[in-house]
Design brief:
Blueprint lengths: L3 E3 L17 E7 L8 E6 L2 E7 L5 E5 L13 E5 L3 E5 L6 E2 L5 E3 L18 E2 L1 E4 L2 E6 L26 E7 L3 H9 L4 H4 L13 E9 L2 E7 L16 E7 L3 E8 L2 E13 L2 E10 L3 H4 L1 H26 L6 E3 L4 H18 L11 E6 L1
């Protein structure tokens, strides 16, 4: 691979900055955000989605459009009738839908009218709650949606308990730009210039080993760089591993002796130009009790700075320029694009995914 290469102009739905992967799990949010009996309207991949939880506690998701007159089902309410169980009642004409999307009742029908409500369906989406997180399966064919053929990810480390810290921000960017912006190793000294992190004057050469992981890759476990000052607050001799997984999950697992920190960044594409970023921290390290305000301010500052840079970058992207990717600083961005292409090809050919990432050491200055 050459030291520098320019992307071709996007010409299909899987080109960089366009389209989305399908038949895959997308991070939707925390399970605690949806209370029993509650319903919320979300947007995922440009589709309106009702995300709810039955009073019995089961999460579900369906297309947030009533097939009768297109009113948002999320504007209705959860009701319960004999022989129907819990249903979503449309606010317009009272049509009721079970959590699996099947119509349970049409109140305007008379006893002698033969319309069978159960023949009417709203598209439902597989929704799984795992380790306190919600993942939604976005199938390729809306008319004949596939069932998930693999489970959502499971994260090692201190998950399952209540998060110690949660931060969110909406990026005005396509998922691709949000992903490569967050994994970019060279922007830190320029975008994130804080006394407690690093400055452009502290740059030096770095060398990190990488290897393939399930549907992604990881920066192998290592000691943080000497100019990454924020790790010092953890004390001891921290070691960290940073993993990326399609379509938009990045997590860092830090160990300090017997203590752990898991920092998960989940990217949820709302549509072609908006991506919601959710950062969640779990830890059994006492620093989160002692320095939580400092850590919260730092996480918020990082997201704001990245978001501000995305807004600035959009000034150039609106002219649809070709982009230049260089080795080794942009190799992770290249891997991301290779992973996307392989995912699309493997699904089209109905074969197993073959991870294109091979073990490699990358070097850059930051």
């Amino acid at each position: 691979m050459s030291a520098a290469e320019s992307t071709a102009k996007p010409s299909d739905s899987q080109a960089f900055g366009r389209g989305f992967l399908r038949d895959i799990w997308y991070f939707l949010g925390l399970g605690s955000e949806i209370a029993p009996g509650a319903m919320e309207r979300r947007e995922v991949l440009g589709e309106p989605v009702l995300v709810g939880r039955t009073r019995a506690g089961q999460p579900y998701a369906m297309r947030d459009i009533c097939p009768h007159r297109a009113a948002p089902l999320s504007a209705g309410r959860m009701v319960e009738h004999p022989r129907e169980g819990e249903t979503v009642e449309c606010c317009y004409h009272g049509w009721r839908f079970r959590p699996d999307g099947v119509c349970a009742a049409i109140p305007s029908l008379t006893a002698d009218q033969e319309t069978d409500p159960s023949r009417i369906r709203v598209r439902s989406y597989p929704l799984v709650e795992s380790q306190g997180l919600l993942f939604i399966w976005m199938a390729a064919d809306a008319r004949n949606p596939s069932e998930p053929d693999h489970p959502p990810p499971v994260f090692d480390g201190v998950v399952g308990g209540a998060p110690k810290l949660i931060e969110r921000r909406l990026f005005q960017a396509h998922l691709d730009h949000a992903v490569v912006g967050l994994m970019d190793p060279a922007h830190g000294p320029y975008v994130h210039q804080q006394w407690w992190w690093r400055t452009s004057a502290s740059q030096h050469e770095k060398s990190k080993a990488f290897g393939p992981r399930e549907y992604g890759f990881a920066m192998e476990r290592h000691r943080p760089s000497s100019n990454s000052r924020a790790y010092r607050i953890l004390g001891g001799a921290p070691e960290t591993e940073i993993t990326f997984r399609l379509p938009g999950l990045r997590w860092e697992h830090i160990r300090v002796g017997q203590r752990q920190v898991l920092a998960l960044t989940g990217l949820t594409p709302l549509n072609d130009s908006q991506t919601r970023i959710t950062q969640i921290f779990w830890s059994d390290h006492p620093v989160f009790a002692l320095a939580k305000p400092f850590l919260k301010a730092g996480s918020r500052a990082f997201l704001k700075q990245d978001g501000d840079m995305v807004d600035l970058q959009n000034e150039g992207l609106k002219y649809d320029p070709s982009l230049i990717w260089i080795d080794d600083a942009d190799t992770q961005a290249k891997w991301y694009q290779q992973l996307k292409r392989e995912w699309t090809k493997a699904r089209a050919e109905a074969r197993a995914f073959n991870n294109p990432v091979k073990p490699r050491t990358l070097r850059w200055r930051s």
